[in-house]
Design goal:
Blueprint: E1 9-13, H1 18-29, E2 33-38, H2 41-52, E3 58-62, H3 68-82, E4 87-90, H4 115-143, E5 146-151, H5 164-184, E6 189-195, H6 203-209, H7 211-214, H8 224-231, E7 242-244, H9 248-252
Parallel strand pairs: 1-2, 1-4, 2-3, 4-5, 5-6, 6-7
């Protein structure tokens, strides 16, 4: 049986842990070669090791997506590896920064959010996907082919107290997704937002809510099937959508 992402080259940001790691390894299992990036060297090495066990090749690149210079370097190195990218997964994201010990600083009202926290959240969650897409989309346009998946959240559709900067960044990502879908449709490039459909048990949610509560959240594996679908030819022509991983099969019979 042929694999659904055979001969594809995918770049996944935030792939050192959590949802990004799960998507990257799954893509390799489905036949894709991977470019993975993140700030955690050890986590990237773990992801790279898991990908190598599938027999697929992997380029691991450390990058801080808060830095435009590092995003530029990431895009250059990624394109030089195999000449093009078929699938871009803008997954890296932060809710609220934590300190060096992983302690979460609480849920401030909008008027209590420090400007630097606001700027950092938007830099990672919105500006980085914009810049990376901008740098990589021209080669997709020239090939008249490509898939862009922006990992979002239900908090990109409605507000939640204490998450002012996070909601603003994800609302922006949803808007960016819709505009890109319209502008790239003539070039047969599909752009969609993918959300879990609820809180997911990740390092980020554990830092916010604690281990015992986070363990009750959705498993990160819930993203696997829709992430494969949106990266494959099965979703050709599906664009500008917000796909809820928890309910998408019910709504669309998996299509």
């Amino acid at each position: 049986m042929s694999k659904r992402l055979e001969n594809k080259i995918a770049l996944v940001t935030g792939a050192s842990r959590g949802i990004g790691q799960t998507i990257a390894v799954t893509y390799a299992q489905e036949g894709a070669d991977l470019i993975i990036t993140g700030r955690d060297r050890q986590g990237l090495e773990e992801t790279e090791s898991a990908i190598s066990q599938t027999g697929k090749s992997c380029l691991s690149l450390l990058a801080d997506l808060r830095s435009e210079e590092e995003i530029n370097r990431l895009a250059t190195d990624a394109l030089e590896w195999k000449g093009h990218i078929d699938v871009l997964v803008n997954n890296a994201g932060i809710a609220m920064p934590v300190d060096a010990d992983g302690k979460f600083g609480g849920l401030p009202a909008v008027w209590e959010i420090p400007a630097e926290v606001w700027e950092e959240t938007l830099a990672v969650n919105l500006t980085a996907p914009f810049l990376l897409t901008k740098l990589l989309v021209k080669q997709m346009i020239s090939r008249r082919s490509g898939k862009i998946i922006n990992v979002s959240t239900e908090l990109g559709l409605y507000g939640a107290e204490g998450f002012g900067s996070y909601c603003a960044s994800k609302f922006g990502l949803e808007g960016l997704t819709q505009v890109l879908a319209l502008e790239l449709r003539p070039f047969r490039i599909d752009v969609n937002a993918l959300s879990p459909g609820g809180a997911v048990d990740t390092c980020m949610t554990r830092a916010i809510y604690g281990d015992e509560i986070a363990k009750q959240f959705l498993p990160r594996e819930i993203m696997i099937e829709p992430a494969i679908y949106l990266a494959s030819t099965e979703s050709d022509g599906v664009t500008g959508q917000h796909i809820n991983a928890k309910t998408w099969k019910t709504r669309s019979n998996g299509r």
